[in-house]
Amino acid sequence: MIVLRSLFGKRGAPRTAPGERVYAIGDVHGRPDLLDAMLVEIARHGSARGPAAQTHIVFIGDIIDRGPDSRGALERLEAATRRAPEIVTLLGNHEEMMLRALAGDEPTLRGWMRVGGAETVASFGLPPFAEAEDPVPWIAELRRAVPAEWVEWIRGWPLIVRSGDYFLCHAGIKPGVPLKRQLRRDFLWSREEFLDDMRDHGAVIVHGHTISDSVELRGNRIGIDTGAYRTGTLSAVCLDGETVEVLAVHRGEAAA
Ligand SMILES: [Mn+2]
């Protein structure tokens, strides 16, 4: 495990809000085994580090899709959140697609099937939506398969969490636009324009959504998606005052 201090140059080291320890966990994408392993690792890490006035455990979004067991990942997360109210899950673009499909948005449904939604519906016991079929009965079937209380729960997931100099969101932000005026779609879908931008965004942006080989610690952002569904490695960072530590759990490749 590494500890990094004063990474961030000109404004001085960024810090969490006083007394706050924040664990931010990368994209889970249908891997309940890794979700559980990471919560165990965080508990171990927290005991070793000693108590904090307040701890927040933040999943960065994209709990579902691509991996083998999205239904299981939601089930584990829901159970963990009931036990541990310090867990917060941010909305990811994949949950956004599922919510839109459930609401009857056909173009989103078609796109969702191509980017891992087929795996999610399979985990709920449904065949994928086929291009030529009538979407109305298929969507009705999906609504029966996904528990209504889970849909309401996911609808309530926030887009952002802030602690001191850190700003957490699923994908990123629109550079050059104040954090208070960002759009929902930028939190959910940002890619290169954000990733390549070297400017100070007014906070260090902690995000998932784009896979990197290891956690990316940059001056203006921290990328924590290490592609758990295909690498078997789920990563997280612990932000505590001025310290940043990287955590990871590994459970082998997802079953093909
Ligand atoms: Mn994403």
Automatic annotation (TrEMBL):
Query: Which molecular function term from Gene Ontology is one that the record holds?
Result: phosphatase activity
| One term under GO cellular component | cytoplasm
Which GO BP annotation is one of this protein's?
Answer: RNA decapping
- SUPFAM superfamilies, alphabetized: Metallo-dependent phosphatases
**Where is each Calcineurin-like phosphoesterase domain found?**
21-213
Q: Please, which domain of life does this record's source organism belong to?
A: Bacteria
UniProt xrefs under InterPro entries: Ap4A_hydrolase, Calcineurin-like_PHP, Metallo-depent_PP-like
State the protein's name. Answer: Serine/threonine protein phosphatase 1
Query: Which organism is the protein's source?
Result: Sphingomonas jatrophae
